[in-house]
Give the backbone structure.
Amino acid sequence: MSKIRVMDDTLANKIAAGEVVERVVSIVKELVENAIDAEADDIIIELKESGLREIRIIDNGIGMDNEDVKTAFLRHATSKIYDDDDLFNINTLGFRGEALPSIASVSDVEVRTCYKDNEVGTFLHIKGGKILAEESCATKKGTSFKITNLFYNTPARLKHLSSSYAELANVIDYVNKIALSYTSIRFKLINDDKEILSTNGSGNLLKVINNIYGPTIARKMIKIDGSNNDYEIMGYISLPEVTRSSKNHMTTIVNGRVVRNTILYKSINEAYTNYKEDSRYPVCVIIIETDPSLLDVNIHPSKLDIRFSNFDELNKLIKETIDASLKDKMLIPSINIPHNELPKYEHITLNIEREETSNNINNDYKSKLEDLVNFNIKEETSEYGDNEIVSEAITVSEDKKIPELYPVALLLGTYIVCENNEGIYLIDQHAAKERCNYERVSYELSHPNGNTIRPLVPIVIELPKNEYLTIMENKNILDDLNIEYEEFGISSIRIISHPTWFTEGREEDIIRKIIEMILNKGSDFSLEKFRDNLAKMVACKMSIKGNTFIDKPSMESLINDLRKCKNPYNCPHGRPAIIHFSIYELEKMFHRSI
Ligand SMILES: Nc1ncnc2c1ncn2[C@@H]1O[C@H](COP(=O)(O)OP(=O)(O)O)[C@@H](O)[C@H]1O
Ligand SMILES: [Mg+2]
């Protein structure tokens, strides 16, 4: 007897379920996406015990007739693609025809559905892939799914589920993102009768951002849009002062699909270079539209990642668009004192804390949960009623990036306290000085004037033979920097002249640092990047350290220099150089205003 047999459908579906249905969020995702594909504009996601006990998805979409609903549970049954051509032109969220049979093979599913304006609907009860009941039922247009007994027949998978709050955190994260992608659909997410998110389907993206992150953040978002031949992008990005420790709050939507794509995140993050530290990530919702034929959406079983066929163009567009919108904005961070009355989310937060202390939490979810707790620190939206949320980002002209302000004192030898009629400003004198020096050195490096000077004290740099050879191999970098030198002895170089802008007294330091940078340069060397790193390094060496007392005229001249910078808001490493406490916030802190 032959030993190879084609497996039966129930087994095949269970195996497919391993890829498609891993946790509560995967089921929510598949069913919500089906509802969207069915053109619903009202979708309710109702969970019991974070979905571990029950998941209900109710939509007002087109529904299925009696035949279709049964076919839908067959493997590879789909109404979304019919042939190869369709696969390369996908306009729906689903297309693999796997979700329903997979879900039904590992749980108990009840579905009620009514096609368009048919008078009767169909009720179907399926467990472990077998139809247990089929009846006609009265129902309104649309479909509702109820999933219980998740993974009852796959104990290993059941065990693999995380704690209930981690499952919920993932669902919230997903529903937030899908609500951001489909602003014209009303979404409601409820867990154990408590409403977690509710959007109104008005099509206003900033409103949904407000529903999710609260007004303090919503007001600090900047609208972006841009396009080139292949791509169109739009959405909102946060002012650089609003950052998070994880990439979780970067929502990228490509042709209606929320994707997690590392190079896309990298591109966005790099567009903020100079405005924030690299290890912090912005909050953003970026909607990308392109011809579907430029995308491969079929590289991931849950369709979370995609591949772009012309990423360079997109990368360029993202960087130019973000850069253009940050360039002319007032970017002094205004300190907000958060309210912390959070009835709606309190139960989640408290329970997360409880679980965290019991150490029962997987590290992957820890950062997600921390983020959740963070977004819990938000002002209640209702406080603002139905008032339209408007971005507070202000466009400023080149010379008004820093307002008129008057230094009052120096604190701790580090912070210059300034005031004007908008409130109090603190300037970090080291960061400010570094920024001024960085912009000056960058300018010198990109506009060499050929002015050089011979060092007063001879500068001789001795190197081990191998390093000496490396330097000789990269002579062109020294030439480019206008550093004239001669070989000296066996493996040393003597500096004959260097540019005039090298800080007096730090010349040898700077040259040694340049040598070190040449020795450590990676294979992805570019002269532009080298100059930029050099400017950062020199700027740091030139700048006063914290804890140095300077007098008022020096404070004034530093502020004036800072005011002339292209980006006066951050040091070259992205740390803030100036922050603002508004009069309103001060009055709030001292309970002078309500
Ligand atoms: N909520 C829904 N409303 C209407 N039709 C649905 C719904 N959910 C599923 N269907 C139908 O069932 C089919 C199978 O769904 P699914 O297994 O998720 O595969 P896919 O979405 O990849 O087509 C869909 O193609 C669609 O025709
Ligand atoms: Mg589907």
Notes: Confidence is low (pLDDT under 50) at residues 340-347, 349-362, 376-385. The two ends are 84 Å apart (CA to CA). DSSP finds 20 helices and 25 strands in the chain. The pocket of adenosine-5'-diphosphate (ligand 1) is lined by residues 30, 34-35, 38, 59, 61-64, 72, 77-80, 94-100, 143 (CB under 6 Å).
